[in-house]
Design brief:
- The complex is a heterodimer.
- Chain A is built from eight helices and seven strands.
- Chain A is of the alpha/beta class.
- In chain A, strand 6 and strand 7 (167-168) form a beta hairpin.
- By secondary structure, chain B is an alpha/beta fold.
- Chain B has helices at 6-13, 39-48, 70-74, 83-99, 114-121, 152-161, 186-197, 212-216, 219-227, 243-249, 258-268, 319-332, 358-368, 387-395, 398-405, 454-463; strands spanning 15-18, 24-27, 30-33, 58-60, 102-103, 129-132, 146-149, 163-166, 170-177, 205-210, 236-238, 281-286, 293-295, 303-305, 347-350, 379-382, 408-409, 430-433, 448-451.
- The chains are: A alpha/beta, B alpha/beta.
Chain lengths: 213, 474
């Protein structure tokens, strides 16, 4: 996994609550058996005026000029500002894959859906939870300044660049450690092989019906 | 000993190790797989040269993008017309064959929606931890199991280590007291709950559904309720084990037998929250007050009783909510204060992991029997949840009741719930659907979904618009 330490980038505001993972990457693109190539179809139904199909050249499709990521001032955005319950619905990991493939590796919102939040950390995407007042301030900042940029520093837990000054954020220590170092969860868990085997032995005694072999 | 909730008990029984930083390694007893969220996980195993930790805990079946027409299914995977869907179904088969994982392939009578197949086979049992790369895995919590959806990286993690790195959720009790009125189903109960706590109300919580309404409910009804816990934001939904649970599990193909059965039943007696267990949050509803529910908007929390009018954003004080209502009404093609019974339908879908079990099909058949689908409808689909549900329905003659009334009787799969196969809505079409999500575009680009119970969908199919099923046949 790609490590996340510090990121500076244009911040795009997506001003709606309950953005679901069907919206982030619609179902017809889940038929891929790869992890990459989802970027052109991120927010497909909001971003384009026609219905997208897999394996289509999206550069030739009609663009929705009213969708925020199509505004010239947010071109090249690396940070997405969002509202409550971002990433709700389906567990599809294609959602963080699409964001990352598009170039967004940090999302700032008042709250996230559990499964999406968890999936982000497996892919080097940093979801940051802030208070509603702080989010409102950042939305105002993006409106006030064209090409508004933020710098997110995971090591220090600070977002800088807002007109209201630095904003502190916190991330669970294990997830922060893995993200800072780009660690592979599976490798870490396999270091606990003897603990897992001891658990299985005990469980086999207590609940033999769970061990059919 | 301190009193525990059901969730606490299930968590503690599966805790392999708690790290100094508070993260926990949790053991997984059952891993269900389907074709959409597993290919990248198998690929990850191959690249890293890893093998599955414990083959016998895995069970796979293709469901999301299998076709449901008889003709496409008749000759197996070669009959799948969409080449991209076909690759995924074939890839699941190849991966299961390569790693030695049991798979109910598309032609197998036991194939079906993974959340219908698991309980039906006794593959998901009380006291288990159950995961699957699908957010509706909470369905299996109806068995008194700790069940939740995971992403593809975690699918790979479970395959490789039989564990997940987790952080414990908080405990929420949703208690529905009293008795349900005539014609009110488990779907109405869960939609009413989501209407009260909201689509993010359960975020960070494991929900236990308790109270007389759930004690009286059948296992299939409990599955419908737990299935939609994620629509209230909770990854986990569950119901305590009782005699109803044990009677359901007994004698199924994967259920324990002989001496193991006796041991299991004895252990399952403890799978309930202690009487004085404390919950972080408690929500109480009155079962008698629940009416048939219909969603009008683009989030499951946008739900009202069938006799209500859709909301008016001008009456909403919260700006973010008001703009949400405005946007939803516009997408849904509705006007503020319009009566729900004035919503006219283009299609009806009866199926999905929420409502495609035999009791759902019986309820829908009972409503349509002797009637004809409204002439204004373009299509009414009935898609059974598994090959075994289909066989049972046909043995009871339900399929002829449906086809005589003008509904289509299909092969099992997820179908129009998420429209990954050919079953989908056209732009602007309204659908009465027994599925679980009314998100924009969920059932097809520009499609407009209204979530309802099987009986309400059936009544709407006959009337051509929403009607109160309680007075439908009077």
């Amino acid at each position: 996994m790609q490590a996340f330490t510090q990121l500076t980038g244009i911040t795009a505001p997506l001003d709606r609550a309950n953005v679901d993972t069907d919206m982030i990457i619609p179902k017809q693109f889940l038929k891929s058996i790869k992890r990459s190539g989802f970027g052109p179809n991120l927010f497909d139904e909001l971003r384009y005026l026609d219905e997208g199909q897999p394996d289509q050249d999206s550069s030739k499709r009609p663009i929705n000029p009213n969708f925020v990521l199509n505004f010239p001032r947010y071109k090249g955005a690396k940070i997405l500002l969002a509202r409550d319950n971002f990433g709700c619905g389906s567990s599809r990991e294609h959602a963080p894959w699409a964001l990352l493939d598009f170039g967004i590796s940090c999302i700032i919102a008042p709250s996230f859906a559990d499964i999406f939040y968890n999936n982000c950390f497996k892919n080097g995407v940093l979801p940051i939870t802030l208070l509603n007042e702080q989010i409102d301030q950042l939305f105002a900042d993006t409106q006030a300044t064209s090409g508004f940029e933020l710098t997110v520093d995971l090591k220090d837990g600070v977002i800088s660049g807002s007109s209201a000054g630095d904003i502190a954020f916190s991330i669970d220590s294990f997830r922060r450690h893995c993200l800072l170092n780009g660690l592979d969860d599976i490798g870490l868990t396999l270091e606990q092989t003897s603990s897992i085997q001891r658990y299985e032995q005990k469980r086999r005694q207590q609940a033999p019906w769970l061990f059919a072999d | 000993m301190a009193s525990k909730t059901l969730y606490d008990k299930l968590w503690d029984a599966h805790l392999v190790k708690q790290q100094d930083d508070g993260s926990c390694l949790i053991y997984i007893d059952r891993h269900l797989l389907h074709e959409v969220t597993s290919p990248q996980a198998f690929e990850g195993l191959r690249i890293a040269g890893r093998k599955p930790w414990r083959i016998d805990t895995n069970l796979a079946t293709p469901d999301h993008n299998v076709p449901t027409t008889f003709n496409e299914r008749a000759i197996g995977v070669d009959g799948i017309e969409d080449p991209v869907s076909k690759i995924q179904v074939v890839t699941l088969g190849d991966n299961c064959d390569e790693f030695g994982i049991t798979e109910f392939k598309m032609q197998d009578e036991r194939q079906g929606i993974v959340h219908v197949v698991g309980p039906e086979q006794g593959a998901t049992l009380p006291g288990m931890t159950v995961v699957c790369g699908d957010s509706h895995t909470a369905t299996h919590g109806a068995m008194g199991a700790l069940a939740h959806g995971i992403g593809t990286s975690e699918v790979e993690h479970v395959l490789a280590t039989q564990c997940l790195i987790q952080k414990k959720s908080q405990n929420m009790l949703v208690r529905v007291d009293g008795d349900l009125g005539e014609g009110i189903t488990s779907k109405d109960v869960v939609l009413a709950i989501i209407g009260v706590i909201g689509t993010a109300g359960g975020t960070g919580y494991a929900i236990e559904f308790g109270g007389k309404v759930f004690e009286d409910m059948t296992m299939e009804g409990r599955m419908t309720v737990c299935n939609m816990a994620i629509e209230a934001g909770a990854r986990v939904g569950m119901v305590a084990v009782d005699q109803t649970t044990i009677d359901y599990v007994e004698g199924r193909p994967f259920s324990p037998k002989g001496e193991n059965w006796d041991l299991a039943v004895a252990a399952w007696q403890d799978l309930h929250s202690d009487a004085d267990a404390e919950f972080d949050h408690v929500v109480v509803l009155d079962g008698a007050a629940i009416a048939p529910q219909v969603t009008w908007g683009t989030s499951p929390e946008m739900v009202l009783p069938v006799f209500a009018n859709v909301p008016n954003p001008a009456k909403e004080k919260d700006d973010v909510k008001a703009s949400g209502i405005t946007r939803a009404l516009e997408y849904m093609g509705l006007v503020a204060d319009q009566a729900i019974t004035d919503i006219h339908l283009d299609r009806v879908f009866i199926g999905s992991c929420t409502n495609s079990r035999i009791e759902d099909l019986r309820a829908a058949a009972a409503v349509v029997e002797g009637h004809q689908v409204a002439k204004t409808l373009k299509q009414a689909l009935v898609v059974p949840g598994s090959g075994l549900v289909k066989a049972q329905a046909e043995a009871e003659g339900l399929h002829t009741i449906f086809t005589d009334a003008g509904l289509e009787w299909r092969e099992p799969g997820c179908s129009m719930c998420l429209a990954m196969n050919a079953d989908k809505l056209g732009a602007g079409e309204h659908c009465a659907s027994t599925s679980n999500r009314n998100f924009e575009g969920r059932q097809g680009f520009g499609g407009r979904t209204h979530l309802v119970s099987p009986a309400m969908a059936a009544a709407a199919a006959i009337a051509g618009h929403f009607v109160d099923v309680r007075t439908f046949n009077l």
